[in-house]
Amino acid sequence: MISRTLKLAVAALSFGLSAAIPTVVLAQAPPMDMSWAMRSQMQNWAHGQAAANATGNGDVNGQPVRIHGIDIDPARRRVNVLGREVDLTDQEFRLLHLLATHAGIVFSREALLSRIWRGDTFVTVRSVDTLVKRLRRRIESDPANPRLLLTVWGVGYKFADL
User: Fold this and answer.
1) Is the pLDDT of residue 38 over 70?
2) Residues 40 and 96 both lie in one domain
Protein backbone atom coordinates (compact mmCIF):
# COMPACT_ATOMS: atom_id res chain seq x y z
CA MET A 1 0.00 0.00 0.00
CA ILE A 2 1.34 3.46 -0.95
CA SER A 3 1.70 5.83 1.99
CA ARG A 4 -0.24 9.07 2.09
CA THR A 5 3.07 10.96 2.18
CA LEU A 6 4.15 9.40 -1.09
CA LYS A 7 0.77 10.06 -2.72
CA LEU A 8 0.95 13.75 -1.76
CA ALA A 9 4.51 14.07 -3.01
CA VAL A 10 3.56 12.47 -6.33
CA ALA A 11 0.51 14.75 -6.62
CA ALA A 12 2.65 17.82 -6.01
CA LEU A 13 5.21 16.73 -8.57
CA SER A 14 2.49 16.10 -11.15
CA PHE A 15 1.40 19.73 -10.72
CA GLY A 16 4.94 20.89 -11.39
CA LEU A 17 5.40 22.19 -7.87
CA SER A 18 8.66 20.42 -7.12
CA ALA A 19 10.60 23.70 -7.00
CA ALA A 20 8.07 25.19 -4.59
CA ILE A 21 8.15 22.32 -2.11
CA PRO A 22 11.07 22.14 0.30
CA THR A 23 12.86 18.82 0.60
CA VAL A 24 11.84 18.65 4.25
CA VAL A 25 8.21 18.31 3.18
CA LEU A 26 9.01 15.27 1.08
CA ALA A 27 10.58 13.46 4.04
CA GLN A 28 8.50 10.97 5.99
CA ALA A 29 6.01 12.87 8.12
CA PRO A 30 2.70 12.12 9.78
CA PRO A 31 -0.08 12.36 7.16
CA MET A 32 -1.75 15.39 8.77
CA ASP A 33 1.56 17.30 8.96
CA MET A 34 2.32 16.44 5.35
CA SER A 35 -1.13 17.54 4.23
CA TRP A 36 -0.78 20.86 6.07
CA ALA A 37 2.70 21.51 4.71
CA MET A 38 1.65 20.75 1.13
CA ARG A 39 -1.41 22.97 1.39
CA SER A 40 0.71 25.78 2.85
CA GLN A 41 3.29 25.53 0.06
CA MET A 42 0.60 25.48 -2.63
CA GLN A 43 -1.03 28.59 -1.15
CA ASN A 44 2.34 30.38 -1.04
CA TRP A 45 2.98 29.41 -4.65
CA ALA A 46 -0.48 30.63 -5.76
CA HIS A 47 0.00 33.90 -3.85
CA GLY A 48 3.35 34.46 -5.59
CA GLN A 49 1.75 33.88 -8.99
CA ALA A 50 -1.04 36.35 -8.22
CA ALA A 51 1.50 38.95 -7.10
CA ALA A 52 3.56 38.47 -10.27
CA ASN A 53 0.49 38.99 -12.44
CA ALA A 54 -0.63 42.03 -10.44
CA THR A 55 2.74 43.74 -10.87
CA GLY A 56 2.79 43.12 -14.60
CA ASN A 57 5.53 40.51 -14.45
CA GLY A 58 3.34 37.87 -16.00
CA ASP A 59 1.82 39.82 -18.86
CA VAL A 60 3.01 41.93 -21.77
CA ASN A 61 1.10 45.14 -22.24
CA GLY A 62 1.80 48.76 -22.84
CA GLN A 63 2.86 51.12 -25.57
CA PRO A 64 4.81 50.15 -28.70
CA VAL A 65 8.58 50.11 -28.21
CA ARG A 66 11.22 51.16 -30.74
CA ILE A 67 14.85 50.43 -29.95
CA HIS A 68 17.92 49.70 -32.11
CA GLY A 69 15.82 49.24 -35.27
CA ILE A 70 13.37 46.86 -33.57
CA ASP A 71 9.69 47.81 -33.37
CA ILE A 72 7.67 45.91 -30.77
CA ASP A 73 3.88 46.32 -30.72
CA PRO A 74 2.50 44.52 -27.64
CA ALA A 75 -1.16 45.10 -28.54
CA ARG A 76 -0.77 43.39 -31.92
CA ARG A 77 2.02 41.02 -30.79
CA ARG A 78 4.12 42.11 -33.76
CA VAL A 79 7.86 42.58 -34.06
CA ASN A 80 9.69 44.25 -36.96
CA VAL A 81 13.46 44.08 -37.21
CA LEU A 82 14.85 46.67 -39.61
CA GLY A 83 11.50 46.79 -41.43
CA ARG A 84 11.10 43.00 -41.72
CA GLU A 85 8.30 41.32 -39.73
CA VAL A 86 9.54 38.53 -37.46
CA ASP A 87 7.31 35.78 -36.08
CA LEU A 88 8.03 34.96 -32.44
CA THR A 89 6.64 32.43 -30.00
CA ASP A 90 4.87 33.78 -26.93
CA GLN A 91 7.93 33.22 -24.74
CA GLU A 92 10.29 34.80 -27.28
CA PHE A 93 8.00 37.82 -27.52
CA ARG A 94 7.72 38.16 -23.75
CA LEU A 95 11.51 37.91 -23.34
CA LEU A 96 12.20 40.46 -26.07
CA HIS A 97 9.61 42.88 -24.71
CA LEU A 98 10.92 42.59 -21.15
CA LEU A 99 14.55 43.13 -22.09
CA ALA A 100 13.83 45.89 -24.64
CA THR A 101 11.70 47.86 -22.19
CA HIS A 102 14.52 47.60 -19.62
CA ALA A 103 17.50 48.20 -21.93
CA GLY A 104 20.82 48.02 -20.11
CA ILE A 105 19.33 46.30 -17.05
CA VAL A 106 20.84 42.87 -16.35
CA PHE A 107 18.38 40.08 -15.54
CA SER A 108 19.55 36.86 -13.92
CA ARG A 109 18.36 33.58 -15.40
CA GLU A 110 16.22 33.02 -12.31
CA ALA A 111 14.55 36.42 -12.69
CA LEU A 112 13.81 35.68 -16.35
CA LEU A 113 12.36 32.28 -15.41
CA SER A 114 9.96 33.86 -12.95
CA ARG A 115 8.88 36.58 -15.39
CA ILE A 116 8.69 34.73 -18.71
CA TRP A 117 7.48 31.21 -17.98
CA ARG A 118 3.99 30.48 -16.76
CA GLY A 119 3.78 29.05 -13.24
CA ASP A 120 2.65 25.55 -14.16
CA THR A 121 5.62 24.70 -16.36
CA PHE A 122 8.73 22.87 -15.16
CA VAL A 123 11.87 24.50 -16.55
CA THR A 124 15.47 24.92 -15.50
CA VAL A 125 17.70 27.98 -15.71
CA ARG A 126 19.27 26.45 -18.83
CA SER A 127 15.89 26.81 -20.54
CA VAL A 128 16.57 30.55 -20.50
CA ASP A 129 19.80 29.98 -22.44
CA THR A 130 17.90 28.02 -25.08
CA LEU A 131 15.24 30.71 -25.39
CA VAL A 132 17.88 33.43 -25.74
CA LYS A 133 19.64 31.41 -28.43
CA ARG A 134 16.39 31.00 -30.39
CA LEU A 135 15.56 34.70 -30.04
CA ARG A 136 19.04 35.73 -31.22
CA ARG A 137 18.56 33.65 -34.38
CA ARG A 138 15.44 35.65 -35.15
CA ILE A 139 16.53 39.22 -34.34
CA GLU A 140 20.32 39.40 -34.65
CA SER A 141 22.09 39.84 -38.01
CA ASP A 142 24.91 37.62 -36.66
CA PRO A 143 23.62 35.44 -33.79
CA ALA A 144 27.15 34.18 -33.03
CA ASN A 145 28.26 37.77 -32.31
CA PRO A 146 25.17 39.42 -30.82
CA ARG A 147 24.97 43.18 -30.50
CA LEU A 148 21.41 43.48 -29.14
CA LEU A 149 20.72 40.56 -26.80
CA LEU A 150 23.86 40.45 -24.69
CA THR A 151 25.24 37.93 -22.20
CA VAL A 152 26.61 39.26 -18.93
CA TRP A 153 28.92 36.40 -17.99
CA GLY A 154 28.15 34.80 -14.65
CA VAL A 155 25.04 36.94 -14.17
CA GLY A 156 22.45 36.73 -16.96
CA TYR A 157 21.27 38.72 -19.95
CA LYS A 158 20.48 42.30 -20.96
CA PHE A 159 19.35 44.23 -24.00
CA ALA A 160 21.95 46.65 -25.43
CA ASP A 161 22.00 50.10 -23.85
CA LEU A 162 20.44 52.99 -25.70
Assistant:
1) no
2) no
